[in-house]
């Protein structure tokens, strides 16, 4: 089974023009009826009464939709008939390409006609229902209802027919995708004679003479084409043009070298951004210069028709081989920076980075050679054994390269100085890429098993995928490093550009840093997803001009783009709405509410309610932008009511309590309250909880339900006044009138004691050791109660000393602890022998207490 001839290099480059031409033809077919309808002057028959002016613009829309519908049916019928045959991957890709313009035309037609249908239905609704049998109706109203009914039916039938064709188109696209997937799987898992089987080598030995004969025929045909078809004159012209182009390219190359091409950077980069820029420059220089130089002679040969028609794949394969080697070298040299660790974009040891660079370059050379060899095999119509041999040899070569890399980068134990047992290396944290070693060993085993089992195509696919994945990972690292460097340079709070940008925008540097971090994270996710799609998506579908949809088996990226645009629009609306709400709230709190004369608690309640209402409005707009119907959300909320009643009961209770606090205002911001043993000032009231700042400067967060259902002492509910009382005990020989006058005088001297009502003194009782008086007064603000009490006590003490008033000391009571009575039946303790300082002389006993 041989592959069909591959299109030429120029045909691949010009395939995009064919697609553009097809799109233009379909667009012209879709727009031609509408243009012709606009160009013609509508004339109504004389016997027919004139139709209403409002319904006239709808008929051309229906005619244009019918034209698009007919064109789409024709194309879909042709595609469906073609799918009944056995097709290759290229033909299936071409059929899928034919469906894309039809999908766009159908979607545009539906978008154009649906608003007209909605307008017609609104007009018909305004006319009201059809009157009952026997009821009279004006002739004009009846005529308008019939006309609008006809228009609605006609447009509705067109919309349904267009959507039916859209469904049919999607089904055909799925059939094409399934066929391509089946074809890919069949090619990938096609089994041949294993290369370890002696029969394979017998088949290869039999195929080699035929391959040599095919090579000789190819050389003879090519020589005949050059001498007989192209001619000496064309060869001479191509050679002369080649020389001229070579001279021009050499001059351009010298000038580019003079202006910095392949220039050696400084030993140490000035910044991370400078290192990334140097890496990108190296990647571009190494990846593009050689392919451009190689493409020039190939284009000259192609344009002068010096290539044998059936040998067209060979120049393209040569260009692909040069591109593989150049791009691999450029990307890996830029990221790994062998010999220049200061410019290395990943933190790798020098031996590991140099070994990885050399291994990937060797794998690229193997893949490039394989591509050229397979191109020659297709041109010479080589036997299957030759193709299997080339693919298997490529897989074996890449396995050998991986094995040598793993063996060369394996850490070996250090021998002891005395030649004994090797010293144990200290335990270190494995690097992030440590998982790649077992993965590569598993890949080697899988390739070997596939080769032994006869799945040579699968082995070659895995080998090429591993080499390509390393290059894709290196490109991803370079792009991510560039993004990080740009974000750090332009959004960093400590950089010159970051401070300049924050000043130009008008936001704080730390907020700009946060914005840069979030923006960089979003770009990281996008780049990583794209890299994962590139690594795990099937390669080789659709030729050089394959789109990403082809590579991923028909994933509709148009719909994904539409979804991304919708989500992006909703995100923008959410961000702008939040910023606007915060701006309005700040303006309301700082400019409007202070001028209304409301107290601070009422201002906080109004601002909180307005803020929640504004956020709810923004949320509803965002949900409508996404396409979620609020009625559906209501249904979901009703379904969750049972769960709310059980699991979320406390949250709902606190929420409702918060609304009661904001509306009824038994507690306001700034009030001094005592609740649950905590005393302090109310700092914030939200719908779920209330923040109280204690006198120790600690913040207590109380659920709102505790403030509604519990007992709360509010010192400042109606006013900020507070009563204080000071008890004083004086001796019995003190003059009560003088004591009373001095206490009132001390209270009147305090600036925090109000005079209406005036402070008063009461003789509370005759105590055991003195007269007990009590001074009572009202403080202007409860916050000054403790300070006022302290100042009054100091003043009272000073006045009493000046007038000789003695403060009676408190009564002190002394209690003795009585011993419990002894049980007469309980034996007493044994008598102790007296201690003596010397024999026969006691030291004395301790006195009893």
Element layout with pairings:
Layout: H1 9-13, H2 15-39, H3 58-82, H4 89-127, H5 139-188, H6 198-258, H7 272-303, H8 313-336, H9 350-379, H10 384-408, H11 436-453, H12 456-491, H13 496-505, H14 509-536, H15 548-551, H16 557-592, H17 600-626, H18 630-639, H19 641-646, H20 649-664, E1 672-675, E2 678-685, E3 689-694, E4 699-703, H21 704-709, E5 713-714, E6 722-730, H22 736-749, E7 760-766, E8 771-779, H23 785-802, E9 836-838, E10 841-842
Antiparallel strand pairs: 1-2, 1-5, 2-3, 3-4, 6-8, 7-8, 9-10
Describe this structure in words.
- The chain is of the alpha+beta class.
- It has 23 helices and 10 strands.
- The protein has helices at residues 9-13, 15-39, 58-82, 89-127, 139-188, 198-258, 272-303, 313-336, 350-379, 384-408, 436-453, 456-491, 496-505, 509-536, 548-551, 557-592, 600-626, 630-639, 641-646, 649-664, 704-709, 736-749, 785-802; strands spanning 672-675, 678-685, 689-694, 699-703, 713-714, 722-730, 760-766, 771-779, 836-838, 841-842.
- The protein has a 5-stranded antiparallel sheet with strand order 4-3-2-1-5. Strands 6-8-7 form a 3-stranded antiparallel sheet, with helices on one face.
- The longest helix is centred in the N-terminal third of the chain and has 61 residues, at 198-258.
- The termini are far apart.
